[in-house]
Amino acid sequence: MKVPPLRKFVSFLLACIFVFCFSITVFPKKRAPAGGRVAIVVDERLSALRLTPQLSGMLLRRIGRGGLVAVRAEKRNRDGVVFYKVNVTRRTSGWIQRDALVSPSRPGDDARLLRLIKGSEDFDRIARARIFLDNFRLSQLRAEALMIYATAAEDAAAHLSRDASRRLDEKEMNAGGAPTFSYYLNFNGLDRYNRQGITFVFDARAKRFHYDGESWQEIVHRYPRSPQAVEARKHLDSLTVALK
Predict the structure, then answer these.
(1) Cα–Cα distance for residue pair 227/219, rounded to 1 Å
(2) Helix (H, G, I), strand (E, B) or coil at 33
(3) Rounded to whole angstroms, how far apart are CA atoms 145 and 136?
(4) Per-domain residue ranges for the chain?
(5) Which phi and psi (to 5°) does residue 70 adopt?
(6) Pairing of the two strands 59-62 and 68-76
(7) Residue 241, CA atoms < 13 Å, CB-side half-sphere
(8) Would you say 210 and 243 are in contact if contact means Cβ atoms under 8 Å apart?
(9) What is the CATH number of domain 37-102?
(10) pLDDT band at residue 29, thresholds of 50, 70 and 90?
């Protein structure tokens, strides 16, 4: 029996609605609050949201790194510290020190964030570099940020390799029956790096993680004449050798 065209269309439409609803439920994205210019928290040491634009102002809450706000106004206090009046949600607003934030629409904020990244260490360097890469896609400093991000990821791979070797018991892995490399690639120490967009590959012979090189590849393809491209090619060649 043939299905009437209208019924086919309705079925198709319902299927599309289901897929859309499923995707926004399972893969939620951060949304900036309305009411002003979008800015991102990059320095959580300064990210206290206050009732008034003073460092002694009543604390309303602290906004975590990567949090989005909408900048409504600006005010310099008697101490020379600049505060932004921001919306955090539809119902929450307050004052936050300008130095805690960067904005893709504010000239010079890419350079300021890059300086903060260079002054950071370990996971903080990776998390702040990720914010740069997600929000300053057209910046002339992007190749430099990509190299810092990739180098920090490869440095982390060395620490993670040692940590995984200490914590994963060979007898227990053999008893479990799954391939050994799958235990390493499911190692929970990788989780927070994965949330920052970093993927590691595993050299089973050396029992060592390596950064997968995605940022080096972007440098080579998008910025082939940059100073970072020479170094990126060397890293990609070394990665190829390690995984042969």
Answers:
(1) 10
(2) coil
(3) 10
(4) 37-102, 141-242
(5) -115, 120
(6) unpaired
(7) 6
(8) yes
(9) 2.30.30.40
(10) low
CB-count exposure of residue 77 (10 Å: 0-12, 13-18, 19+): middle
What is the pTM for the complete model shown? 0.84
Residue 183: which of 207, 215, 148, 219 has the closest Cα? Answer: 207
DSSP structure class, residue 100: G
Q: Which amino acid is at 154?
A: E
Alpha-carbon distance of 125 to 149, in angstroms, equals 7
Distance, first Cα to last Cα, the chain: 57
Residue located via tokens 């300021």: 112
User: Which segments of 36-190 does DSSP mark as H helices, in order?
Assistant: 109-118, 122-135, 142-167, 170-176, 180-185
pLDDT in tens, 101-156: 999 999 999 999 999 999 999 999 999 999 999 999 999 999 999 999 999 999 99
- Measured at the CA of 192, the angle between CA 191 and CA 193, to 5 degrees, comes to 90
Say if CB 53 and CB 97 are below 8 A apart.
no
- Tens-digit pLDDT profile for residues 1-22: 444 444 544 444 444 433 334 3
